[in-house]
């Protein structure tokens, strides 16, 4: 039985996580939100799980490193400097950061990489996502993760081959680009489609999250898997044995 501390405990994911921790028979060591004492929470926990906001990342990593315990980061909207902070923390503790902790999306990323590699550059790739009206970042972390998987399959760099936020006279589609489109509305937990559009045919790979419980269950599996590991960065495919 592991003692799991939640950072962002009063949020949508925080509530789902508390349920998943109890369902899996683990101990909720406590929770913090903005202004809370994350260092104290870390001292009382075997592992921390962070579903908050990018601004909280550095402090959360600092607390985990201070206590010498692993941390799983589900927060999205991260930038390059956040990834540098994750790399630096991973020199001292086990760190797992992912835009999506669900089994389905972890497998989808694998299928997308495979499809992009096999279908080749004549097939245009678009990533479409829809989320609830409260979501604050776009494209979603999952859309970017799927875009990375596609770019990986193609052997190209995502950052220099992305088309995001098309509007107005955009000109024709850039050759080899991976496009992103984001929809927001209602209470949608998360829907992602990767569309591979070729000459007179189209392949669509879709994942639908029907409930946040899927992210919470994956996060609990990932967090407990991290306990006792060497320092370093880990991935959901490793946790789920899909690598
Ligand atoms: N990787 C994955 O599988 C998933 C990732 N996510 C991501 O998780 C994040 C949270 O999502 P969601 O739960 O819906 O968001 P919510 O807005 O519902 O919850 C965020 C929580 O984080 C807290 N918080 C914000 N800033 C800080 C801080 N500096 N220190 C401590 N706590 C803080 C908020 O507290 P307060 O109200 O006091 O500000 C709030 O309780 C998002 O980035 C989302 O994209 C979501 C689902 C799945
Ligand atoms: O904010 C959310 O809700 C979600 N965020 C993650 C993302 O940005 O991909 C994962 C999931 O889709 C729900």
Automatic annotation (TrEMBL):
Query: Which residues make up the binding site for NAD(+)?
Result: 8-13, 74-76, 98-101
GO terms of molecular function? 4-hydroxy-tetrahydrodipicolinate reductase; NAD binding; NADP binding; oxidoreductase activity, acting on CH or CH2 groups, NAD or NADP as acceptor
Q: Which domain of life is it from?
A: Bacteria
Supply the enzyme class, top level: oxidoreductase
* GO BP term, pick one: lysine biosynthetic process via diaminopimelate
Q: How does it assemble?
A: Homotetramer.
- The protein depicted here goes by the name 4-hydroxy-tetrahydrodipicolinate reductase
Q: Which organism is it from?
A: Tsuneonella dongtanensis
Q: What gene does the UniProt entry assign to this protein?
A: dapB
């Amino acid at each position: 039985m592991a003692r799991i501390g939640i950072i962002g405990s009063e949020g949508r994911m925080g509530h789902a996580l508390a349920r998943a921790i109890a369902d899996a028979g683990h101990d909720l060591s406590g929770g913090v939100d903005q202004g809370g004492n994350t260092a104290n929470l870390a001292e009382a926990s075997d592992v921390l799980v962070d579903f908050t906001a990018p601004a909280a990342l550095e402090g959360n990593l600092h607390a985990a490193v201070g206590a010498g315990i692993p941390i799983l980061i589900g927060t999205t909207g991260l930038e390059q400097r956040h990834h540098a902070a994750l790399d630096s923390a991973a020199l001292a503790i086990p760190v797992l950061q992912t835009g999506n902790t669900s089994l389905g999306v972890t497998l989808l990323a694998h299928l997308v990489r495979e499809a992009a590699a096999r279908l080749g550059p004549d097939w245009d790739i678009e990533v479409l996502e829809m989320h609830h009206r409260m979501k604050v970042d776009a494209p979603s972390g999952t859309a970017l993760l799927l875009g990375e998987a596609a770019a990986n399959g193609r052997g190209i760099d995502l950052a220099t081959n992305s088309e995001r936020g098309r509007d107005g006279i955009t000109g024709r589609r850039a050759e080899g680009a991976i496009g992103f489109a984001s929809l927001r509305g209602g209470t949608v937990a998360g829907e992602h489609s990767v569309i591979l559009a070729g000459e007179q045919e189209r392949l669509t790979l879709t994942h639908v999250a029907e409930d946040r419980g899927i992210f919470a269950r994956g996060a609990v599996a990932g967090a407990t898997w991290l306990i006792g590991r060497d320092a370093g960065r880990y991935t959901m495919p490793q946790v789920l044995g899909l690598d």
